[in-house]
Amino acid sequence: MIFPEGSTRRTDHKAASETVYDAVIVGAGISGAIIANELSRAGKRVLVLEAGPGEDMDIPGYDDYLSRFYEAASKDNQSPFASNDSAPMPRSTDVRRIRPGHPDASAYFVQNGPFATDTTYTRALGGTTLHWEGKTLRMLPEDFELQTRYGQGRDWPVSYDELEPHYRHAEREIGVSADVEDQAYLGISFKPGYVYPMRGLPLSYLDKVVAKGVDGTKVALGGEEYELKVRPFPQGRNGIPNPGYDGGKGYRPVGAVSTNQVEEGGRCQGNNNCVPLCPVQAKYNALKTLAKALQTGRVDILPQTVASKVNIDPGNGRVTEIEYKTYPEVNSKEYTTGTVRGRIFVLSANAIENARLMLASGLTSTSGLVGRNLMDHAYLLAWGLLPEVAGTFRGTICTGGICDLRGGTFRGEQAGFAIDIHNDGWGWAMGSPYTDLVNIVDDHNKFGADLRRELIARISHQLQLAFMVEVLPNASNRVAVDASFKDQLDNMRPVITYNIPDYSMRGVAYARQTSRRIFQRTGAEDYTMYDPTDYGYATYDGQGYVIRGGNHLGGTHLMGTTPRNSVVDSHQRAWDHENLYLVGGGSMPSIGTSNITLTLAALCFRSASHMITQLRHDTAPAEVAAG
Amino acid sequence: MASHKITSVEQLHTYLHAAMMLEHGTIPPYLTALYSLHPGSNPDAFHVIRVVAVEEMLHLTLAANVMNAVGGSPDLTTPDFVPDYPTYLPDGETDFEVSRQGFSRECVETFLNIERPGEAPHEDARLISRKNDRGQHLCGSHVESEMRFWSIGEFYEEVRRGIDYLHEEMGDALFSGDPARQAGPEYYYSGGGTLIAVTDLKSARAAMRLIAEQGEGLRGAIYDAEHELSHYYRFEQLLRGRYYQRGDEHGKPTGPTLDVDWDAVYPVKQDATIDDFPEGSELRAAGVQFNQRYAEFLALLTRAYGGSPELLIDAVVEMFRLRDRIGQLMRVPIPGADGVNGAPTFEVSRVPGRVES
User: Fold this and answer.
1) Cα(A342)–Cα(A611) distance, rounded to whole angstroms?
2) Nearest-angstrom CA–CA distance, A353 and A330
3) Using the beta-carbon criterion (under 8 Å), do B256 and A260 form an inter-chain contact?
4) Integer distance in angstroms from the first to the last C-alpha of chain A?
5) Of A86-100, B115-129, B232-246, which gets the smallest average pLDDT?
6) From the CA of B186, how many Å to the nearest CA of chain A?
7) Which of A46, A227, A512, B59 is most exposed, with the fewest beta carbons within 10 Å of its own?
């Protein structure tokens, strides 16, 4: 995929400030890229502001990300990206345990607690999809009507059936590899005859070892019986194109992004570091969509430009312009300010940054819900050693798992969850294989062939399960701003107040029970240990657990049916500002038990058609802006 | 000159076997140059060479598909399948030698020679006497052993004419092969080109056209029918320090600049043979082992092309292993060779006993 050379330098701030664009988009991640591409293909002029550094994306640039990751001592999600205090990012390595009454303001997030979240997002061209894992589960139909069915959470203003065609758009854009027969469960339905763009990626050997023990296990929950089965996950990475896709037209996978023609980015090679970065761009990242959008010639992009304030016309609530701060180089304290204008404005900077920008602009909405209902999946990890060599560390990070407890009547009482089988062993929980290596060398004095044997023996038995537990919207989990906490460009930083609700903790407790059951069935020795001094330590019913963040941020401008119960309508348009769209995970009224990217991408496709219709019918704002 | 023409299915099989040898024959030189680059350095050069090498593997498989379609049996285990390097390729009236060598300007010049578009000036010039050849020639005529083709392009032109001629004579009976032996598009993709299952004249022509055009371009154009830059111009970018982009004329790339670090290269032994590695050295053992594994790999491909295309998935895994072994050989100085490093020798002919497919 050709990234048109010079795109990131072509537009200067002065020229941009003199143009009234059809749409101004804040944030060049997947949401912004999809909307920029859809609008520009409909002939609209689009400006994208990106807070992070922005060079044209070519192979050497991508290789720089890779080298930084390879050389980094910590292999966390942000390790490929240079730190940038001009547009800082949260980083899991920054998180500290919060003492009650002592917020931690030592890093970008100001964490009020009581729970310290290690959730992250990436401020760079392509956004968080650079380090996403690439799981592309659809939400369950019941996730859209949780309140009606189970008296919990919120219903969505759109149903699964209404979103289904947009799921298909998103699956095409991302390039999903999966087989319908594996994914039609718990009511998930597909258009008759549908096949995914590419065939499903196979289960890993580790998955099969687990399946041997687990498949057919029955668990009773809330008076019902559920049978467990290891099934492959749909993946946003290139597999074997399905010739039956699109009525027999097939699918052409999208390769690596570069300013010149390259043929990288073909098929997934099973490298074990999808997170934080696919070495060959077989995994989708939003640069692929962004490059396509830039090819239209109707999309301008201003990198190193942090949107700092949304200005509205107090008379009618319409957005008149967005103020920005642009910095000359990464980590610079210097900046200049300016404004940009459009007929519509789209905030696509993720759930936390969208809310931060709105609140920094004094826009709390009629409902008062901007920044509230912050959600992220609560991950519980459990790890053990299998009795046999299971080939751990082969394949992508996660190829299979157990989805049978994602839905059911038990959700009236406790959270559902999906279970990931981690092909990267104890990596997330214990830092394997690097920690194993250090231990074998430093504490066991092994070297040469002995070291190799010992390392392989140790890691190839590892089994780590990750339980992705649902967290429901809760108004007291929130993003706020406070003028006493600013970054070095004088932008207010996000102040996070967050706790894991009991509903989710009941799910966590049940997840731990389920892990014991799975270890029993597979003959694994349980090595799980939750350290009470860990920043993610949380207790429920006398038991302690360590919870990790999922980087699946939602809820901060959730969609609903009226201006009083929500921030945006079902098209992600702000109730209070008719030319402003707040898009992405923040619009989701619940996050169910699927990684949110596919669903938020589907929402963006739906919103893009609405925006095109609005631009066609609505001529007023150009005059307002021109005045 | 009628006598050199392909007039029988057996002759066509001979040509297609030669085509597979030719396509494969470029792979050891490309891989040697590719992996001689210091890891992480020279991303531009790395990706240019890599994509060409991958496409040669596509061409090899396409040639095998055509061979299967016309009732032949692709065999990569024949004794002379892997040439002894340096080996000859034609470049118009003169020949040039292709070596296995580390990445350098000279090496890229050789690659340009390999991929050079070459249409003979007139019909009678397509075949040239090979009386001056010292050894194996990868573009020899397989009907007239004293002659070889003007260029790779003319060699493939001959195959194309042969297929057309035999189809006229025999009709669809020419395509007598079992379609289940075809490796379809699911087994390959890169950004450009695709595997074509060959079952009839149309698909056979398409496969042959892809092989010829991807290398040399479409009759002199820098982009082929798939809008892909041809191999010749890909390599030329490395010497010119600038990428081509759509609409460019040859010799005048106007795309982004690129950087080549000619020194970030392992000093690998040119056309290394096992005899260059001292008896009893670990390097020699690793070199011998590599050749064994490479012979087994060619046997695996032979089985894949012999009715089990699904084995091409296993072959991918094996290619990763070969890559790692090549890397190991190239990082080790040859004892007593004054700073010259080892290299894979691809001397399959020296592997004891024939590796059975």
Assistant:
1) 13
2) 19
3) yes
4) 40
5) B115-129
6) 5
7) A227
